Amino acid sequence: MKTTPDVRVGSRNSPMARWQTDWCVELLSKARPDTRFEITTMASHGDRYQGPLSRIGGKGAFVKALDRALLDGEVDVTVSCVKDLPSPHDRQPGVSIGAVLERGDVRDALVLPAGRPPLPLAELPRGARVGTSAPRRIAQLRQRHPYLEPVLVRGNADTRIARLDDGSRGLDALLVAYAGLHRLGQAHRATEILDPVLWLPASGAGMVVAEYRTGDTAIRDLLTAITHPATATALAAERATLATLHGNCTTAASVHATLTSTTITVDAAVFAPDGHTAVRTHTSGPLQQPEEVGRRAGEQLLRDGAAALLHALPHTP
Hints:
The chain has helices at residues 15-31, 45-48, 60-71, 135-144, 157-166, 178-183, 217-224, 229-245, 290-312, and strands at residues 4-12, 35-42, 77-81, 95-100, 108-111, 129-132, 149-152, 173-177, 190-193, 208-213, 253-259, 263-271, 278-286. It has 317 residues and is an alpha/beta fold. The strands form three sheets. It has a five-stranded mixed beta sheet with strand order 2-1-3-10-4, with helices on both faces. The longest helix is centred in the C-terminal third of the chain and has 23 residues, at 290-312. GO terms for molecular function: hydroxymethylbilane synthase activity.
């Protein structure tokens, strides 16, 4: 059997990123067994930097190196978690999403230091320090559990868990993505899995995408073969809502799309930084029009007062 030239796949070098890239390459290899795939890893400024993302260009700090390698022709495909992508209006020109992999668990989870007796979030003692890097989680924590202290903790998921366990940050708990725990083989560390109806998930939660240079039709066609249609539909709606809101890395917002055989529904919310105020919407429409439904959800939020909350968000938290 003749083997076609390699397809070069770029990945961040964190354990989570490598898991996601290996999964993507496994799917590609099954779809195209005649093609060799070569993984190239690279460091990201977002992984190395431990302060607020707003000071280094927002979520683009996670994918800047990948985008540069892609646009410079050093790789043909890059793989990222959707939550690490900038909002659509801030996305790097010349980079397109080619494959959307099947969505994982959208829920957040509570993790306690190793060896501690399991407790739910509501039973943590007053003043307990709960680590997270997500404005969405911080706002909801302040709204639902104002007696707890949110603490900004940056770094890859495995690094954050290690800091929790060694006590170096004085943390009593972490809030993390449950899908991430699964991907790291750490699902057993979750002492509580939070109800997504009450504790709203992130836009793109549990999603992984493969991107390519816009206009590269051969790679586009290759990636189309591994796209999960339902997840791609949900992603289109959620990203359309974010684009309408013009959110950024400091935006405390949730956008979550669910599908039936004929309908797509977007549940979305924007929170004030202190968690005391939130604007929510529940918007439905035809399954074939995810971008339109997502856009309408964003417009409804803005009409209901989300713009004031968005403007109140600090640019340098």
